[in-house]
Design goal:
By secondary structure, the chain is α/β, with parallel strands linked by helices. The chain has a single domain, classed as 2-enoyl-CoA Hydratase, Chain A, domain 1 (Alpha-Beta Complex). The chain is built from 3 helices and 6 strands. The strands form 2 sheets. Strands 1-2-3-6 form a 4-stranded mixed sheet, with helices on one face. Strands 4-5 form a two-stranded antiparallel ribbon. The two termini are 23 Å apart.
């Protein structure tokens, strides 16, 4: 599991947990983080989320080791980051390359940055 959610009353801690890759983002992690933040936003009892990277790194950006295993001319093309997913209210959820970085939530998210937040990891920290 690349994402964990810890709930303490109205405060949710959403943890990106790929310490073996310095929390580098791959498609599975991006989707899991997006789903976790959508679950948080839809939950009427949740008030604030703390976003944290396990293992001493917030996020080291896109997982270049993963990309190197894709044997096509344009490896990021298969990710289809421009695709939005349907939202329950009839709108669409924008899909960023790092998962939730383009979501517009109705509740605050605090980035608890410990260690490196590199490249796209900085984008997540600023989101």
């Amino acid at each position: 599991m690349t994402v964990r959610i810890e709930k303490d009353g109205p405060v949710w801690t959403i943890i990106h947990d790929r310490p073996e890759a310095r929390n580098a983002m791959d498609p599975k992690s991006a989707d899991a983080l997006t789903d976790a933040f959508l679950e948080f936003d839809a939950n009427g009892e949740a008030a604030t989320a703390v976003f944290y990277g396990a293992g001493g790194a917030f996020c080291s950006g896109w997982d270049l080791k993963y990309v190197s295993t894709i044997n096509v001319d344009y490896p990021l093309g298969e990710l289809d980051i421009s695709t939005a997913r349907p939202r329950g209210n009839g709108g669409e959820i924008p899909r960023g390359p790092l998962g939730p970085s383009r979501l517009e939530l109705d509740k605050p998210v605090i980035a608890a940055i410990e260690g490196p937040a590199v490249a796209g990891g900085m984008e997540l920290g600023l989101w």
